[in-house]
């Protein structure tokens, strides 16, 4: 993972992005023959960082990846085309939940509530009028406020999802507003959003016909919705607790600083925070994690990077990461990736 010196100026470090969403961007790049390795490098990431699909990354990494992909694509409407390519599965559990909702009003409620699980640099709220549903978007970082492509990607992905779910693929929004300045060519924007597009506005918003939200959704499944909502609520609770929590961030930083030197013990980290081991474990449990889980995550990240890049042998990695033997390291590596270290190294180098 990128070091702190490569962070994007102005980005709030507690804002995060799901790895699934980043991988969907890289998949889009692959489909468009955009060099994914260059995109990763620009983001301060390596292919090894992608192995842990469940982890979250600083949103600044995704922003850099997006901007690099836009630059490398040479596509003046990159944001639109990226937005059109987003599928419900790219949003993880939140996207799957959207497909099980009973109607589009509920969909938007869930979208606003759970979007942080996907990509935390936006806030959104919904206003209902007699004829329309207006979604207003609040960017949380300066980079989004100045990037037309990022604004277009967000609104277009939302519009694509709603259109698909309510069967309105050939119908247009009532109005679309961007903070960004009008580009020289708006024909492609009009194809996606219709002709009522406003530029240099004080807000990013999209107004959709009220009639769309009166249509039943054929794929509604109350049982699946209940299950996915419970899962999303639990993930949101964990994320809200850990993102920006001073103790959580301090413990993670302590582990990262010492992981390559046998790693810290629970007692050492507890002492550094003037807590008993039991108190530290209890506080981490309240944040939805544990000390052993945090250590395992950092061990995994280091191991995948070192082995994937051929930087050291399994014996060296096992020693530095505090495993009792190379065999114990090999077992952990197979648990993380489903592959032996040698197989993983060969695939990464091939």
TrEMBL record:
Organism in which the protein naturally occurs: Marinobacter confluentis
Keywords: DNA-binding, Transcription, Transcription regulation
Gene3D superfamilies in UniProt: Homeodomain-like
Domain HTH araC/xylS-type, first and last residues per copy: 249-347
SUPFAM superfamilies, sorted: Homeodomain-like
One GO CC term, this protein: cytosol
GO MF term set: DNA-binding transcription factor activity; transcription cis-regulatory region binding
Name listed for the protein in its UniProt record: AraC family transcriptional regulator
PANTHER family: HTH-TYPE TRANSCRIPTIONAL REGULATOR GADX (PTHR47894), HTH-TYPE TRANSCRIPTIONAL REGULATOR VQSM (PTHR47894:SF1)
Keyword Metal-binding: no
Top-level taxonomic group: Bacteria
Lineage of source species: Bacteria, Pseudomonadati, Pseudomonadota, Gammaproteobacteria, Pseudomonadales
